[in-house]
Amino acid sequence: MLESEILCRACAAFGLRLENLKLLGRSQNLVYEHRSVEDSSILRISTGRWRTITEVESELAWMDELAAAGIATCRPLQSNKGRLCELIEEGGEQAIAVHFEHAPGRKIERAEIDEGLYQRFGRLTAQLHASSFDRPLQTAAQAGRLRWDQSRLLVQDLDDFTPARAAGFRRSVRELIQELRPQVEGRLGLVHGDLSFSNMFLDGERLWIFDFDNCEIGSIEQDFSVVLFDAIYCRLLNRVSMDELAQQIRQRWMRFLEGYCEVRTLPRIDPELLRKFLILREGLIYIHYCRTLDFSALTDATRAAIEEMRQRVEDRATEIELAE
């Protein structure tokens, strides 16, 4: 009932009709598509673990800058009161509602992800990095976002949600953070933080990027580790033999970098630094699983695979090996 009251107030704030909403997802946020005769748009409502107004405003400021620069992302839309986000208080609970343009095009099907698509992915990533690392951002775009090492997954959920048996995992994650912090200090910028085909639409030949909810102040190596782990490794795992895995990863990674270099000069990447961020990325995914999944409802195979993730992080190991 409380959720429906918040939803009604969010619709009223942005001039949307409740009957035109379709729920798309409810992981970290409630995400709805709003369809009308004129167009489609996206309503996002954050409750519970929601970010502060300042954090959300910074996210939206960057998206607005990117769209103004011609980068294919979705502009936030103003409420009836001329605000980009609305704080809704109902029954002692608070929520933040945001209204976005709907990306044109369609979801990307797994079967169509080829090396050409990775090349376009590389171009888009370079555009994002150019906007953040090659020219000054508006103050509002950076002011409210957390640093990579201040992520709630790392500073709070690491202890709150991982099991007692994961003491070695927690120690390994903390050691990685301590080692990485001085290595990337002084060359940080806004990064998307969740780059994958799941957060993109394909419109003709053009990729559109959305879901900037996890953007943070981080390094290029960190953003690259997300691409390697989420968009390459995880899409190949269990679909090719282990003998083929390294070759397939490298082929897709090389095409991604080709696309990147068409837009922006590739910075020198320390392979060991990238390797550490890859291990940390797997650690973040494991923490997220511990927070969101009911392990008793999982198959034995899935539980075993998640345990392997924990063990790899504890051992500081990764199945992704890339030469310099």
Automatic annotation (TrEMBL):
Belongs to the pseudomonas-type ThrB family. The lineage of its organism: Bacteria, Pseudomonadati, Planctomycetota, Planctomycetia, Planctomycetales. GO terms for biological process: threonine biosynthetic process. It comes from the Bacteria. The keyword Transferase applies. Signal peptide: none annotated. This is Ser/Thr protein kinase RdoA involved in Cpx stress response, MazF antagonist. It comes from Planctomicrobium piriforme. Keywords: Kinase, Transferase. One of its GO terms (molecular function) is homoserine kinase activity.
